[in-house]
Fold each of these.
Amino acid sequence: MPKVVDRMANLEPRLLIWGSLRTLLKSGHQMLAHIKRAHHLEAKKTVEIRSLQGALRKEEFISTKLKAALALEEERKKEGELEARMAKSILEAMIRAVEEFKASFEMRNLNFEFGQQAFIKGFELFEHQVGLKISRAWPKFFGRRGGYGGGSQTIRYCSRSFSHRSDRRTFQTC
């Protein structure tokens, strides 16, 4: 450092000013380059910040939509659970009503009446089938005409309505 001071002392003031000015200009030029780089970096960061802000807005919008869809789905799920509970309670009420009806006097009465009607219908069906078989077999045993009494009347099976109160006979002479 003493050499620099000696050299400065030997220089003329004019040269000393120009040297200082040159140093200042170099510094100014470097500062200007630094400022330009800083502006360039700032512009890049601004673009990047704007891009990130746009992406953030999109994500917030998507998040809001997803939250709304989730809330709607939860509401539908609650409605479905409510409907399932209602259906279950209706089914239970129907089962209770059917059980009460099964145990009631009316049901026992209906069962008894149905049993009677089924027996009568079954008996009439049996009577009808036996009548058909007899009417088919009759000519084989007694000939075309009635075998008893030698009458001219043909005995045949006449169909009738199935009524348990009917007093009509299965066979009649026509």
Amino acid sequence: MHKTLLLIAVVSLFSFNCIAQNKDYTKFWDHLLANDRVEAGKFLNKNKSSDLEWLIINELLRNESGKIKRNDDFLKAFLTKDDFEYYLFAFWDRSFLFDDYIDEGFNSNTFETLDKIKALNLSNIDLKDAITYIDAIRNRHNNNWEAYTTLNEEINAVLWQF
């Protein structure tokens, strides 16, 4: 009985592992880390896909190739993917999302990205709070102190008592 259950568990584990495997981008990363962007681009174009991982890797390659202007096509495709929220925090300060607004300040791309993400129904509460915070900062930037205060009050945070 125990051998049967163990056999079923092992077979299930390997089955799920095979099903869950995504495309292998190892050759792409090897080329990119060796600073061979041309070969990395060829590999990526040969394995073109519409999945979220390919979109992000393609945008990273564009950035590594010196194309730092935001790609609206990427942003549109990125925000339509089901799991984009998982990747949003990881690439938050990249030029293809919010830019590095902490060091460089806000710009029109930052606010356009904010508006597009704010219009979505986000499920992650921390992500909602981060978007609300950036929106509050935009209002402070525009000297709209009432909206700034209101948005900051909407953020789920612990109120400390001293």
Amino acid sequence: MKKLLSLLFCIFLMVSCQSQTDLEALKFGTDIESLLKGLEDKYRDNSTYIPFPEYKMTELNCFKIGGITLNNYSLYNKVYLAVDSYKNNQFIGYVVIIQDPEKEQELTDYFLSQMGEPIKKYINEKKEKGYLDAQYLWDDSQKDRLVYIYRHHTQTKKGNEGEEMALVRTIFMTIKKGLVATPDKNNNPENVKKLLEENPRAFEVLEMIKAWFPN
């Protein structure tokens, strides 16, 4: 019975994702209402990386990036599609969270080969310990977008035998240039005022991403 259910589930996935959406091909300002209607696995949520309304999906096999097919390697793999509002559903960016080591490396290589020199970069690597903490940020004027990658690799012990296991969590984010976030209503107005006095551009998305980098 379990095998039959698994087979039916796989058939459903193949039928529902016959046509994969290339996130790199989505144009900013596109109404993605029809795309959303074709996705069974979606709900309103927020990745915390893009300060705008988002739809979250965990069935990554419906998507690809630059021709690279995504997969459902882990329950923690996620796709977020960001929109200007839940009413208009105009596409403004995406966040993809990957824990598959091979797919993560393939996507990283893709962006590094496509984007050229980043405007900000941070790399802290200890190869002998399997540790990596890295960030990249590109200001892509040609495609009117910002591209951000955060890579985090660690090693941990697996099972009683103490076998080493790699843990990977990488964030790939693309968002339209020039967007400005609105301060949360719960923020103390005095704190917001002080922040803007220190940096009048503090709520511009580009400035927010730059603030994620270590000083």
